[in-house]
């Protein structure tokens, strides 16, 4: 399964992009997006993107 960024809540701060060990996060329009085929949810560890995201409930299960 993969994570998803809710575009309407994304502040476009960019913190998540640099924390992703799979380079699955990139800017798409005015918000960041997660490429589902590359997201491994940090292989069972706590997702690093969620840990650094300043917006609650921005990154959710797809």
UniProtKB/TrEMBL annotation:
Cofactor(s) listed in the protein's UniProt record: [4Fe-4S] cluster
Keyword terms, alphabetized: 4Fe-4S, Electron transport, Iron, Iron-sulfur, Metal-binding, Transport
InterPro entries listed in its UniProt record: 4Fe4S_Fe-S-bd, 4Fe4S_Fe_S_CS
Gene3D superfamilies assigned: 3.30.70.20
Domain 4Fe-4S ferredoxin-type: 1-30
One term of GO molecular function: metal ion binding
Name the UniProt record assigns to this protein: Ferredoxin-1
Organism of origin: mine drainage metagenome
Higher taxonomy: unclassified sequences, metagenomes, ecological metagenomes
């Amino acid at each position: 399964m993969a994570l998803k960024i809710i575009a309407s809540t994304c502040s476009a701060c960019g913190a998540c992009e640099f924390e992703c060990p799979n380079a699955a996060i990139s800017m798409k329009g005015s918000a960041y997006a997660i490429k589902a085929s590359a997201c491994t949810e940090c292989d069972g560890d706590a997702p690093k993107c969620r840990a650094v995201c300043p917006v609650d409930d921005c990154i959710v299960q797809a």
